[in-house]
Structure formats: C-alpha cells, structure tokens
Amino acid sequence: MAIALQRFCLNRKIAPSLSIEAFFRLVNSLGLNKVELRNDLPTGKVTDDLSHQQVRELADRYHIEILTINAVYPFNRRTEQVRGLAESLLQEARAIGAKSLVLCPLNDGSEVPASETLSALRDLSPLFSFYGVRGLVEPLGFPQSSLRSAAQAQTLIRDAKVPFKLLIDTFHHHLYPQADAEFSQVDIADIGLVHLSGVEDARPRENLTDDERIMLTEKDRLQTCEQIKHLEARGYQGVYAFEPFAPELASWSEEDIRRETERSIALIQRHYA
Question: pTM of the predicted model, to two decimals?
C-alpha cells in the first residue's frame, strides 16, 4: 500500500529563493498540504517581511498546515540567549499557527553532559506548554554533535518527564555509527516527525556535511527508502518532511523543486510497494 500523499511535507530549505507565497502555492500544486518554516534562510526571519497575520492568510488560501519552525540552536546550552531565542520562536509559532518547534543540540565539538541536556529540556518545557507548541528534539549525527543518539534523546526526554517528541533525520541516522543497532530501543510512538534527504557523495560518513544533502535518488547512500520501509514496518504513521541542504538549492526554480519532489515521492512509493 502506498504512503498517503498527505504524509509528505516540504521544508522551506528546499526553496530558499522562493517567497513564502510562492512556496505555499507550489506545495499546494504538488497535492501536498504541509510545510516547515525556518529561521536560518537569507532574510534571517521566519516570515521574511510578512506579518504573522499575512502568513496565516496565505496558509489558509493555499490550504497549508505549518508543522514546524526550525530551530532553537543550541537548545542544550542553558543561557539567557538560548532561552530568549526559544521564547521568541515560540511566540512566532503560536502567531502563525505552527504546531511544533525543533530543538537542535550543540554541534561544535564541545561536550555537553547528559545531565545538562536533561536540565535544558526541563527548563524549556514550561515555555512550550505556555505557548501551546510541541517540542521536537532532533539528534544530530555529526561526530562533533553533543547529542547523536535517538535512543539517548528518548531516554533524556522520558527522564526529564517532558512532553517532547523525537525528530528523526535519515541523514543524521546514517552519520551515527550505532544508530541501526540502537534503533530497536526507540519507541515509534515517541517520533513526532521524520526528515528525509539523500546523499550520493562517496566519502566516509564522518566526512559528510549538510552540503551533500540532496533529494532522493537511486544512488542514495543514506538508504533513506530502506529507513522509511523499516519505520513503516514498525508502525510509524506520521509525517515525512523533505529537508535537502545542498548549496545548489539556492538556484533551483519552481520547476526544479517540483520535479525533484515528485521523483523522490515516486521513488519512495516504488520502494515501499
């Protein structure tokens, strides 16, 4: 059985050169209705130069559901600056109707004790509750990341007794050598979203960066389609969001985005059939 089209989502990282209206219109024309917005695109603003009300009106016009804003970084540094960023993005999420806010760990080679990450989760949780926004914790598989393991992230969320979910990324799953062995420990019910991308670059995984992340192809070294098949077999029924990062995305036209999205979805459906 095919994966329902409404379970696919586009992260705005795929369309950094498109206005929000053009992005929403394109998503709608693909038969999709879910997007992720970001705070790290060229304008540096989640909503570019639009008001929150204008974004809500555009979402209504094109029948778009804003799943997340990406991201609070580094959420596990317990500083006033990080707390301020979190509160600012939570305010924006509530104002535009985004359901979740993504939390990414420190990724500069500095060690952050698990106890510190747990305390950070506890610190932030009341803010999320106040604004009515869900938290999604995204382990980063890079060797320099302070939180690489989904299983560890799940344990920290549970030990902190906070209502956050996991965000699993097929790229970061590939980068973390123990991910496959540990994944049986992850409760599928704890996964709130899955990010998809592909990599054809043949370098060792420890040398890969976001710049190598493209859409899905037959040569994908992440085995993203296999990861999806495994998630589905274990009962995952949530959303898959395409999140490529390669620099060439900046020059993609609407037609390029349409073609690559349709190809990627078709590849997944063929693999899953």
Answer: 0.97
